[in-house]
Every structure is written in C-alpha cells, then in structure tokens.
Design brief:
alpha+beta
Length: 224
Amino acid sequence: MTSATSADERDPELPGRLLTTERDALVPLLRARPDADFALPTTACPGWTVRDVLAHCSAALMRVVESRYDKDVFSPESNDRDIAERAEWPNRRIVDELERGMTEAGPVIAGAGGVLDGIALGEWVHAGDVREALGEPEAYAGAGLPDALALLARITRERDHVPLQADLDDIDEPLRLGGVPGERPPARYIGDAATLVRLYGGRSAAGVSYELAGAKEEELNIFG
C-alpha cells in the first residue's frame, strides 16, 4: 500500500471517490446476500441490524443529494425516523437507494467546501460495520482505505483533534493526525491501518494487537 500522509490542501473529489469505491465493493456484496442476512445484528451499532445501518446510510446520503436538512438532521432521533420510514421497504429498495446515494452525493459534497466531508467517512465506516456483521474479512480495509485515511487525517486536523503519529504496518510512511502539537506531545499508535480506523470510529478493537501511547482509546473517537 502506498503512503498516506496528511496533505494541507483539501481534495474536493476525495469524499466522492471514497463513496464510489465503496459502492463498487459493497453493493454487489449486498445484492448477493439472502434477505435473512439483512436481519443480522451489528456489533458496532447496538440495537441496529444490517438493514437498519443500510437504511440510515442511504437516507443520510439522499438528504445530501436532495439538500434536505431538518433542524435535527443526523441526530439520533432523525436517524431513527429515517430508519422507521423505510421499515416497509423491501431490502432491494434500500440497496437501490444506497447505490444512488453513493453515486450522486459526491459532487454535492465536493461543492460544499468541506462541511459535508465527514459524511463520506462515516458512510465508509458504516460499510465496515456491515461487512463485519456479515462475516466478511478486512471489514475496515479494502480499496477505499487510502482515501479514508487521507480524509481522516484532514478531518482530525481541522477539528484540532488529539495530535497523533501513526506508524502503520501496511503504510510506507508515518501518518500524522490531529491538530498541531502544543504542550501535550503527540500520542503514538503502532499497528495496522484498519485497527486505527476502528479506534477513530469508536469501534471495538478487542483481540487485535496494537500499541497506543499518550492518549486513551476514547479520546480518538471522532463520532462520539
């Protein structure tokens, strides 16, 4: 895998590229799965099934495509309403909507100046949640990982998140995340890239070997 360092300049096409890369991997997988698999529980999203996660993702993307932003958009209450509105849909319709959203949201996100970039990263992490629930290997890896890491590095920098240097097993050069170090020296992570994604996504990394010094796992979570 090539190096993924945090560039200072925003690439407006990156979020859309991440979405379409994931679309091409995830949608065929979903179309090949029996309906029973959509009822499987997800570990990362307690109380949500695979279907619920997909319904949330497709709804969020269509809100972006159609510029529908309620006062409490993307709140837990809004997410629950989106899922409930799709309760009677067949699974195929949810996958169709997800495919459309992953295809059409990119240009809208690109033109938003960066405020919507985190949605693409969140969708990619949720795709990992789905793959994990389905028992697929490398749930938080795959072809989109380099773009996901680049987007993660920029988002954590813009949010002045905990400074961290990640020495990744599968990346050529260190990945720098978070804000500019001040009085607190940068934390350090040693391990693979997929586990780093799990930590920043607030997902469990139980049973995986990695080292984290200078920060607690919960401090890395960008969605909490």
